[in-house]
Amino acid sequence: MKRGKFIVIEGGDGSGKTTLLKSVGEVFPLKKFRLTREPGGTPLSEIIRGVMLSDEARRASAETQFCLAWAARAHHLQNLVVPALESGVHVISDRFDSSTFAFQVHGQEAPHLEGLFREIRRIYLGRYAPDMYIFLHVSPKVGMRRTAGRVGERNHFDRRKFEFHQKVTEGYLDFFKKINPPHVIIDASKSLEEVKRNFHQALCNIIGRK
User: Fold this and answer.
1) Phi, psi (deg, nearest 5) at residue 103
2) Strand 132-137 with 183-187, pairing
3) How far apart are CA 39 and CA 96, in angstroms?
4) Within 10 Å of residue 126's Cβ, how many Cβ atoms?
5) Is the N-terminal amide bond of 130 cis, ω within 30° of 0?
6) Does the domain spanning 6-207 belong to CATH 2.60.120.970?
7) pTM for the whole thing?
8) For the purposes of burial, counting CB atoms within 10 Å of the CB of 88, is it exposed (0-12), middle (13-18) or buried (19 or more)?
9) What is the pLDDT along the chain (210 residues), one digit of tens a residue?
10) Buried b / exposed e along 14-53 (16+ C-beta atoms within 10 A)
11) How far apart are the two ends of the chain, measured CA to CA in Å?
């Protein structure tokens, strides 16, 4: 059986990831996909997500958040991503390891973790590294303006100051420059229809037409 494709959609807060993920069914039969998220995706990983985003973790160090993220990721890979891929199903994850690089190494200012990040990535991901990252690039000012009007509770990362979100954006770009995985960068400041069109085209390019 042909293995499914592993695709990651990334972007800072307010970049439109959730909206685009909901649009996948407009182009492809959803039975061919498994949509998931990080941190999370499995019951245990969702518990870790709750810890990472809780108010109690607001002052948690980059090292603490880094380790929690990779623990959740390991379980997510072993129990959801890999089984789906091996069964021929395409997996699209809302965030993945690039978020850890952006949020902890850059946003939480822990450059000393970069070497450890590379080593853990090599060991944990192995031959299941994502086939494609789709990065929705939007300026932090636009993203923060969008999330300010978001319905529902905002976590402690959402509530951080502009400088933090600026570092996160720089972290994503640094990830794509240094790690250099297969990736597409989409200008998410454009109209929703144009962003959706570019997103759908990126999906078609990696998995083919339906």
Assistant:
1) -80, -45
2) parallel
3) 8
4) 10
5) no
6) no
7) 0.93
8) exposed
9) 799 999 999 998 888 898 999 999 988 888 889 999 999 999 999 999 999 999 999 999 999 999 999 999 999 999 999 999 999 999 999 999 999 999 999 999 999 999 999 999 999 999 999 999 999 999 988 877 877 766 666 788 888 888 999 999 999 999 999 999 999 999 999 988 999 999 999 999 998 865
10) bbbbeebbeebeeebeeeebbbbbbbbbbeebeebbeebb
11) 18
CB within 8 Å of 158: residues ≥ 6 apart: 13, 147, 150
- 8-state DSSP, 3: P
CB 136 within 8 A of CB 188: yes
140: phi then psi, degrees, rounded to nearest 5: -55, -35
CA angle in degrees (0–180, nearest 5) for 96-107-73: 25
CA distance 104 to 195: 27
Tell me, what DSSP letter sits at residue 78?
I
**Which stretches does DSSP call E strand in the chain?**
6-11, 33-37, 90-94, 132-137, 183-187
The number of C-alpha atoms within 13 Å of 105 and in the hemisphere containing its C-beta is: 22
* Tokens of residue 76, six digits: 């997510």
Place of tokens 């061919």: 32
